[in-house]
Amino acid sequence: MSDFEALHPRAAAGRFTSKTNDAPDGTLSGATLPNGRTPAPGMVGIHGEKFFQAADIDPHQRWNGFAVPSFTREVTEQIVQWTNDAAGPDEPSFEWDGDTLIDVWRDGDEEDRQEVGQTVLSDGTVLYDVGASSWVWSEPDE
Fold first, then answer.
1. Edge-to-edge, what's the strand order for the sheet holding 110-115?
2. H-helix or E-strand spanning residue 74
């Protein structure tokens, strides 16, 4: 299985490139999540090779043992660029519709479009749940 297939379990093939990510600081200060919890920032990566700064990693939530991170718009744009650069014509990609991120799956003439989950913080900041509960996000110490 390629790294891209691991990133997108539904993908048929991958063209993953391992590049260092010079992510801007995606952390937040003073804002709280809708449940009142303060965001817990941290780095998450795909197979320990490609890391992004998550604005929040809920320490109590895991998907199949993997982290379930949320990202600021700025970091989400980096993830979108990295994913779209690796995607072929019939592989998943992302598109923006204003402030809404759309996960697009194509198979020939078929197309499936799903909105990526969002969390709005107390200060109005929107976090994007890119790959939450479907990608194999891991933290550096895992």
1. 93-97, 100-107, 110-115
2. helix 73-86
Structure tokens at 33: 């999540």
Confidence at 106, pLDDT banded by 50, 70, 90: confident
Tokens for 114?
């799903």
Task: Dump pLDDT digits (tens) for 24-47.
Answer: 455 566 788 899 889 999 999 986
Phi, psi of 81 (to 5 degrees): -60, -45
Which residues have C-beta within 8 Å of that of residue 142, sequence separation ≥ 6? 48, 67
pTM over 0.90: no
Q: What six digits make up the tokens of 108?
A: 């020939």
Closest CA relative to residue 69, chosen from 79, 61, 78: 61
Which residues contact residue 73 at a Cβ distance below 8 angstroms, ignoring those fewer than 6 apart? 99, 126, 128
